[in-house]
Design brief:
This protein is mainly alpha-helical. It has three domains: 72 residues, Fumarase C, Chain B, domain 1, CATH 1.10.275.10; 236 residues, Fumarase C, Chain A, domain 2 (Up-down Bundle), CATH 1.20.200.10; 62 residues, Fumarase/aspartase (C-terminal domain) (Ribonucleotide Reductase Protein R1, domain 1). Helices cover 58% and strands 6% of the residues. The protein is built from 18 helices and eight strands. Helix 7 runs antiparallel to helix 9. The longest helix has 37 residues. The N terminus is likely disordered.
Length: 462
């Protein structure tokens, strides 16, 4: 496509592979493809919503100015009654003036008339931009926290269901010792609960505004206006803004989203590993009529977990961009602006989608206890080697000697078609001299490994 042949760039639709970028009067350039944008979050990052928050900031400042006697109360009433904006018109003005806030103010004043002279008094563009951006970030975080709460309840319910579903625990990808699937989920739940606490603290951190004027010195607007306006908006004044709110706050915001995405990725990777054909202990729900492969009709692929893994990479990549934004020149530059126009909508929209996706995935996850039992008992219970070793030590055998006896029998069973560690160790005369058949059988009881798990469950209300 030759863009020079398109007479009106504001109305074109550019299609690249499967990604469609559209323009309309309420939604300027979409930064995340619609496939992964859920309306409740996507609506917070449209141009229409952004301009709405800009207007909220301007009106809050006007109200504060009036309360302090700087502008007539009747002017504020007129501003509130008449103020409006047209996203299309703002873009038309911006095409000429090359300044989005000036274009916005010009359009608002077209609606307000003479009272518009009281709008933006003593303010700088970043007073509007950064304070309004805080409103968007808080609103987005509230949605994310709501979805985190949903995920917590779904994991907790699934963990309760499988508190006693025995499976093998793995380290380095190799069979280790018995656990339960509920215990595995308990670890996920604890991680999400920690994330929830971090996000709740983050909400307070990012809920800051600034109405401090050029370079932040309050030369043309006093701090009392800032305090009143921020209070009306549900924000706190920044402690020491320059001409912008320092970007370490925004970097922390994106980093926390990246950390949450990393947790979701961990769960997704675990599901993918447990769904392997030769493991098949859990499986993503496969709906009627769903297809797994265009070539192989038998395939049931973990596509949702794979999707989440890929999305986590995207969110994580924005954490780097967010940190790069911290080092601005002097009291401000706008090198951060172009990054944030893509980074913040993308990070919020993707994290929100990931939460909804992983919640539904876990809620409908298929769990196969029979396969878990089969996998745990391969090679004749070799995973109970530590219990046998400890039993021999309790009978007075040196640890090194006990280890050598158990390892010899375990390795003899390992990767053998009919390998049976339990039979081999039972027939070892060195073991027979120290352990009775009943004592040896007790070593192979998986319940011994689960006796303290109720303490963990109680901590998490499972």
């Amino acid at each position: 496509m030759n863009l020079r042949n398109i007479p009106n760039l504001l109305n074109f639709v550019l299609t690249v592979k499967l990604i469609t970028v559209k323009y309309d009067s309420c939604d300027r350039w979409r930064t995340v493809i619609e496939r992964y944008t859920l309306p409740e979050m996507g609506n917070l990052w449209t141009d229409a919503y952004k301009f709405k928050t800009w207007l909220q900031v301007e009106i809050a400042v006007c109200e504060a100015q009036a309360e302090l006697g700087y502008i007539p109360p009747e002017a504020v009433a007129e501003i509130k009654a008449k103020a409006n904006f047209d996203p299309q018109r703002i873009l038309e003005i911006e095409a000429e003036v090359r300044h989005d806030v000036i274009a916005f103010l010009t359009n608002v004043n077209e609606y307000v008339g003479d009272a518009g002279r009281y709008i933006h008094l003593g303010m700088t563009s970043s007073d509007v931009l950064d304070t309004a951006l805080a409103l968007q970030m808080v609103a987005s975080l509230d949605l994310i926290l709501q979805r985190v709460g949903d995920l917590i309840e779904v994991i907790r319910a699934k963990a309760r269901e499988h508190k006693n579903t025995i499976m093998i625990g793995r380290s380095h990808g190799i069979h280790a010792e018995p656990i339960t699937f509920g215990f595995k989920l308990a670890g996920w739940l604890a991680e999400v609960l920690r994330g929830q606490k971090r996000l709740q603290a983050l909400r307070e951190t990012v809920a800051v505004g600034q109405i401090s004027g050029a370079v932040g010195t309050y030369a043309n607007i006093e701090p009392r206006v800032e305090a009143l306006a921020c209070q009306k908006l549900g924000l706190k004044p920044d402690v020491a803004s320059t001409q912008v709110i320092s970007r370490d706050i925004h970097a922390e915001y994106v980093q926390q989203l990246a950390l949450l995405a990393a947790s979701i990725e961990r769960f997704a990777v675990e599901i993918r590993n447990l769904q392997k054909t030769d493991v098949l202990e859990v499986e993503e729900f496969f709906s009627k009529g769903q297809k797994g492969s265009s070539a192989m009709p038998h395939k049931r692929n973990p596509i949702r977990s794979e999707r989440l893994t890929g999305m986590a990479r995207m969110v994580r990549s924005y954490a780097v961009a967010a940190v790069e934004n911290v080092a601005l020149w002097h009291e401000r530059d706008i090198s951060h602006s172009s990054v944030e126009r893509v980074m913040l909508p993308d990070a919020c929209i993707l994290t929100h989608f990931m939460l909804v996706e992983i919640t539904d995935l876990i809620k409908n996850l298929l769990v196969y206890p029979e396969n878990m039992a089969r996998n745990m008992n391969c090679y004749g219970g070799v995973v109970f080697s530590q219990k046998v070793m400890l039993a021999l030590i309790e009978k007075g055998l040196r640890r090194e000697d006990a280890y050598a006896i158990v390892q010899q029998n375990a390795h003899a069973a390992w990767n053998q078609e009919n390998g049976n560690f339990r039979e081999l160790i039972r027939n070892d005369v060195r073991v027979q001299e120290l352990l009775s058949p009943a004592e040896l059988d007790a070593c192979f009881d998986p319940q011994q490994h689960l006796s303290h798990l109720n303490e963990v469950y109680a901590r998490l209300d499972i």
